[in-house]
TrEMBL record:
Pathway membership, UniProt: Amino-acid degradation; L-histidine degradation into L-glutamate; N-formimidoyl-L-glutamate from L-histidine: step 1/3
Catalytic reaction equation(s): L-histidine = trans-urocanate + NH4(+)
HAMAP family: His_ammonia_lyase
Organism: Paenibacillus forsythiae
Protein name: Histidine ammonia-lyase
Gene assigned in the entry: hutH
GO MF annotation terms: histidine ammonia-lyase activity
């Protein structure tokens, strides 16, 4: 059980909720803050104070006073009017993560939500109800208004949701799960939709997949080094001690660990004096990507434990502050950085693929073909990798440098953080396919060299690859092989510790 209090959620717990369907609940100690915060809102409505989003309209309508008797109507109108996202629905895992993160933000106790609405939000998550949320339409400031509005609709018995594999009206999904919709009180609609949970949910999943991808890249690169009779001197500790980036040293150590016991690797001068950069500079490039991942992890961990709505309620002082914590700039930058880093994993991988298949760059059969000339072998897999890498370059253009004013120029600078997160997620998906192509080519080349000559760790990796993709003995469509291996790499446990055991 994941216990939410708004301040202690970890990325590992988020992963448990996504991949293991671990259920969540609000920690007992959090309810006092939640209820006290709500009491402040009730007092404001009763006294008729002018507070943004409670007794006023939204955005440019912030100076329009709403009478107390219309406070509830204001919130349902907010949800309905802001639910105008378009495009393909977000994946269910992303929506589950949004539910978890929104519940955690509300559990922090600064949003003025009622206990009943927050409990229903958690119940929806635990019941497996997945609100249908179109993926496009957020500017990433004033929160992820459009996507979070679609998330909120089923809570009031509207919108659509997936439940037990069936697409249903929101009210029917609740009914089948034994739940009842709520009537939103003052401030609650705003509390549900004003936040960064769409961009952050997409970002967390992209980060978790990128973290795994980076480790796999080290292992697959080691197999490629053997297939190309690579030089191991460059991974020696002394070389990396004098440029003391911890991540660079870590990657070099991993590569050496994977190659321990190999009879295929070489030393300087044995075959050639130097390898190409795509082999020689793996620690420098992969290590720099690890630095990116460290930065992104830090920002995500802060964001998933932040209060990001507006206004914020401070029960100790009774103050309600209308600020800007909904602005997604920190996550926008982090997602752009993540996309750039992961794109480089794929970029250097594609260059290793080229060295594996190009007969002018190795002494292997041309394009690793079983019968060069009559059969094209792995020739076109490099084309696919090159196409994906080129697409990544376009996707890596930073979304965070853009801004379009909205709400009659009241909201005149936005982050585009959700676009940045979606682009980063697409880059991660593309990069898994590029790494899968490298793995397939490296496996083919290693078997041509002699699998018995591989290091024990890379021989185990070869076995994992061969459990999904058989050797190429005659030309066939490789499309399914690439897709299946990319999927297995995302989901299987191919840890370095396991491979080196």
């Amino acid at each position: 059980m994941i216990r939410l209090d708004g301040g202690s959620l970890t990325l590992e717990q988020v992963a448990q909720a996504i991949y293991s369907r671990e259920k969540a609940e609000i920690r007992d100690g959090a309810w006092g803050r939640i209820n006290t915060s709500r009491a402040v809102i009730d007092s404001i409505v009763k006294q008729g104070q002018k507070v943004y989003g409670v007794t006023t309209g939204f955005g440019k309508f912030s100076d329009t006073v709403i009478p107390p008797q219309d406070a509830e109507k204001l919130q349902i109108h907010l949800i309905r009017s802001h639910a105008c996202a378009v495009g393909e629905p977000l994946p269910p895992d992303t929506v589950r993560t949004m539910l978890l993160l929104r519940a955690n933000a509300l559990a922090k106790g600064y949003s003025g939500i009622t206990a009943g609405t927050l409990k229903l939000l958690v119940d929806v998550l635990n019941a497996g109800i997945v609100p249908l949320i179109p993926s496009q339409g957020s500017l990433g400031a004033s929160g992820d208004l459009a996507p979070l509005s679609h998330l909120a609709l089923p809570l009031v018995g509207e919108g659509e949701a997936l439940y037990q594999g069936e697409r249903l009206p929101g009210a029917e999904a609740l009914r089948r799960a034994g739940l009842k919709p709520v009537t939103l009180k003052a401030k609650e609609g705003l509390a549900l939709i004003n936040g960064t949970q769409a961009m952050t949910a997409i970002g967390v999943i992209a980060y978790l997949e990128a973290e795994r991808l980076a480790l796999l890249a080290d292992s697959i690169a080691a197999l490629t080094i053997e297939a190309l009779r690579g030089i191991t001197d460059v991974f020696a500790a002394d070389s990396h001690r004098v440029r003391p980036y911890p991540e660079q040293r870590l990657v070099a150590g991993r590569i050496l660990g994977m190659l321990k016991g190999s009879s295929l690797t070489t030393v300087q001068g044995e075959i050639r004096t130097q390898d190409a950069y795509s082999l020689r500079c793996i620690p420098q490039v992969h290590g720099a990507v690890q630095q990116v991942l460290g930065y992104v992890r830090e920002k995500l961990l802060i964001e998933i434990n932040s209060a990001t709505d507006n206004p914020l309620v401070f029960p100790d002082s009774g103050q309600v502050i209308s600020g800007g914590n909904f602005h997604g700039q920190p996550i926008a930058f982090a997602m752009d950085f993540l996309g750039i880093g992961v794109a480089e994993i794929a970029s250097i991988s594609e260059r290793r693929i080229e060295r594996l298949v190009n007969p002018q760059l190795n002494d292997l059969p041309a394009f690793l073909s079983p019968d060069p000339g009559l059969q094209s072998g792995m020739m076109i897999t490099q084309y696919t990798a090159a196409s994906l890498v080129s697409e990544n370059k376009t996707l890596a253009h930073p979304a965070s440098v853009d801004s379009i004013p909205s709400s009659a120029n009241q909201e005149d600078h936005v982050s585009m953080g959700t676009t940045a997160a979606r682009q980063a997620a697409a880059i991660v998906g593309n990069s898994y396919k590029v790494l899968a192509i490298e793995a397939i080519c490296a496996a083919q080349a290693a078997e041509i060299r002699g699998a018995e000559r591989l290091a024990p760790a890379t021989r185990r990796l070869l076995g994992r690859i061969r459990s999904v993709v058989p050797p190429l003995t005659e030309d066939r469509s490789m499309s399914g092989d690439i897709e299946r291996l990319a999927h297995r790499m995302k989901t299987a446990d191919w840890s370095l510790e396991d491979l080196q055991a």
